[in-house]
Amino acid sequence: MKPEKSYRPNVAAIIVSSAYPEKCEIFIGERSDIEDAWQFPQGGGDEGENLKEALLRELKEEIGTDRVEIIAEHPEWVQYDFPETVAKKMYPYDGQKQKYFLVRLKSNKAIDIKTDEPEFTKHTFVKVDEVLQKVSFFKKPIYTKVLKYFKRNGYL
Fold it and tell me: What is the domain range of residue 23?
């Protein structure tokens, strides 16, 4: 019998530009520790934080600003397994379970990825349909699911 998998809980943000809803562009960043691996900002919660507090703290740490408006929240936790190369680094976790939020930047100019511990080396805004062309292979199923939910519900 295989042992039950362990998933690290965290929050993730799908960030639309300050031009939303007139223009729907989504932020993605290239990870500083994995070349050509693009993703949404995400991270684990600290002791005693609720999900929205964790989200705002993670955004401040990763993109230099927490000046966002929360538009919507995905109704379910979604999870994925780490590929073998990442699993070793993330031990004892086999993957992550995430709560996704759709947020709108109050100002695109507030982004500063040169934070104390940079998560990203580059960032860009892409059209919704371009996100899956850029992101890491093991995150595509999750990104597909959450983007589909926000599209179906009229947010994207």
Answer: 7-152
